[in-house]
Specification:
Helix content is 57%, strand content 0%. With 217 residues, it is an all-alpha fold.
Length: 217
């Protein structure tokens, strides 16, 4: 199977079975999503969704959050991973939105990357989810699944994975493909024990093709 055939088959399966994938983070505006994505680093969406309602009720806008203290923010988010660092990032992000961006979440990657707590993955999530741009956010799920099923080969880091995926996936599908790969990695192509027998794309999967049929369960 060629790389092109693999991409074509996998994309078509996802288009048919998951035509409108969405982020599992709860949000109602760009600022809320930015807060949630910063909190989601090395933390589950489920945990973040438990935390953000109270946090955003207390600090619903960049202005409100920028006037908080790190300790006040920490008290709302202390059950996430790395709460001290994330409290500092959220406060710095809110202050910069107010001072540099008129309290609006920017829509270009260079501006987003200036914000404290925002790396390339977080920036690409905002660009694809909020602004519907052809940005491919590569988290641990996307990185793992892409390599395992054969969309990438020997990818050394998330940026390499991102460039390879963007090269092969049609531009109008890149934002959706980000969610396809995340959700597939979260619920089917799991890290320790992929559920290959339940997987709809196994006929296109490099990992499955190298495994003895029926030995994975």
């Amino acid at each position: 199977m060629t790389v092109e055939e693999r991409y074509k088959g996998i994309i078509e399966w996802f288009r048919q079975t998951m035509p409108d994938p969405r982020t599992e983070l709860n949000y109602s505006n760009p600022f809320e999503l930015l807060v949630a994505v910063i909190l989601s680093a090395q933390c589950t969406d489920k945990r973040v969704n438990m935390i953000t309602p109270a946090l955003l009720e207390a600090f619903p806008t960049p202005e409100a959050m920028s006037q908080a203290s790190e300790n006040e923010i920490f008290n709302f988010i202390k059950s996430v991973s790395y709460p001290n660092n994330k409290a500092k990032s959220l406060l710095g992000m809110a202050k910069m939105l107010v001072s540099d961006f008129a309290s609006q979440v920017p829509s270009d990657i260079d501006s987003l990357l200036k914000l404290p707590g925002v790396g390339r993955k977080t920036a690409n999530v905002i660009l694809s989810v909020v602004f519907d741009k052809a940005a491919m956010a590569v988290d641990t799920h996307v990185f793992r699944v892409s390599e395992r099923i054969g969309l990438t080969t020997g990818s050394k880091n998330p940026v390499t994975t991102e460039k390879t995926l963007v090269k092969h996936i049609p531009e109008d599908l890149i934002a959706r493909a980000h969610h396809w790969l995340i959700l597939h990695g979260r619920y089917v192509c799991k890290s320790r024990k992929p559920e290959c027998l339940e997987c709809g794309i196994r006929q296109y999967c490099r990992f499955w093709s190298k495994s003895a049929a029926g030995t994975i369960n």
